[in-house]
Amino acid sequence: MSSRRSRSRQSGVSRITDDQITDLVSKLQQLIPELRGRRSDKVSASKILQETCNCIRSLHREVDDLSDRLSELLASTDTDSEQAAIIRSLLM
Amino acid sequence: MNSSHLNPSSSLKSRFTTRFLRALTRINARKPISPSSPREIFQRYRRIKVAADKSMASSVRSRRTWSRATLWKLRSRSCLQLASLGRRRSVKTSTITSRQAIMKKTSHEIENKTTTEEDHQDRFVGQADKLRELVPGGEAMDLCNLLDETAHYIKCLTTQVQLMRKIVDFYSL
After folding, report:
1. What ipTM does this complex have?
2. Is B14 exposed, middle or buried (0-12, 13-18, 19+ CB in 10 A)?
3. Does B53 lie at the interface with A, CB-CB under 8 angstroms?
4. Which ranges carry the BHLH domain (chain A) (predicted)?
C-alpha cells in the first residue's frame, strides 16, 4: 500500500484523505468499460485517469461525428413538431 | 444515495431530448440561400453540436460545476460573437504558463528524489492535469471534486451520445 505522504505539491488540498481519493478513483474505474472487469489493485490510479481521459476524448469525438451526421441529415429532411413528438415517444 | 446522482434518470433523458429536438427544429427552420453548401453544412454542424452540449448542460442545470462551466462558456462565446469578431483574448495562455510553472517545479523536485513512488504520484498528477483540460471547469477544481465531477460528466456524455445516436437513426430511416 503506497503512502502518499509528500503532498507538498498539492498543499492546497491537504485535508483530503488518500482513502477518499482511492474511493473516487475506483468509482471512475467502474464507469470505464475497458477497466470494469479488472481488480482494482491490479490497475494503477494513473492508468485509470489515463483511460478516463481517453474515454472522454472518444465521447467528444462521437458527439462531433453525430452532430456532423445530423447536419447532413437535416439538410435533406424537414422536421416539424409532430416528428419531434414521435421521436420523444420512441425514446422514452 | 450516491447512485442516484450517477444514474441518468429518465427525466434527465427527456429534458435533454425535449431541449435538443426543440433546438434542432429551430436550426432547421432557418432558410439559408444554399442549404447544401459545405459552409452551410459546417455552420449547421457547429450549431447542432453547441445545441447538444447546451441541452445536456441545461438539463443538469446548475447542480454540477461542469454544467455551470459549460453554460457559462457557451453564453460568453455567443456574447463575444455578437460583440466583435476581432477581440479574442486567449485566457488559455495564463493557464498554460501556470501549468508550465508547476511542471517545472515538479521536474526540479524529481531530480532530487527519484523513487518509483514519486514517479507514480507524478504520473497521477500529470494525468489529473490532462483530465482538468477535458472536463469543463476542471481547472478550478480540487482533486476530489475533479474526480467526482468527471464521473458525472462521463455518465451524462454517454447519455448524450446514446440519445443523439437514436435521433440520427430515426432520421436515417
Report:
1. 0.74
2. middle
3. yes
4. 5-59
Q: Give the domain range for residue B53.
A: 9-83+132-172
- The interface residues of chain B toward chain A in range 133-162, judged by CB-CB distance below 8 A, are 134-135, 142-144, 147-148, 150-151, 153-155, 157-158, 160-161
* pTM to 2 decimal places: 0.75
User: Grid coordinates representing A28?
Assistant: 471512475
- Domains plus CATH for chain A? 18-91 (4.10.280)
- Cβ count near A80 (within 10 Å): 11
- Give the count of domains, chain B: 1
Q: Is residue B19 part of a domain?
A: yes
Give the contacts of A11 (CB within 8 A, at least 6 positions apart): none
Interface check for B13 against chain A (CB to CB < 8 A): the answer is yes
Which residues on chain A are in Cβ contact (under 8 Å) with B156? none
DSSP chain A: -------GGGGGGTT--HHHHHHHHHHHHHH-GGGTTS-TTTS-HHHHHHHHHHHHHHHHHHHHHHHHHHHHHHHHS---HHHHHHHHHHH-
The cell numbers describing B117, all together, are: 513512488
As a dihedral over the C-alpha atoms of residue B27, residue B28, residue B33, residue B37, rounded to 10 degrees, the angle is 90
Chain mean pLDDT for chain B: 79
**Which stretches of chain B drop beneath a pLDDT of 50?**
1-4, 90-99, 101-103, 105-110
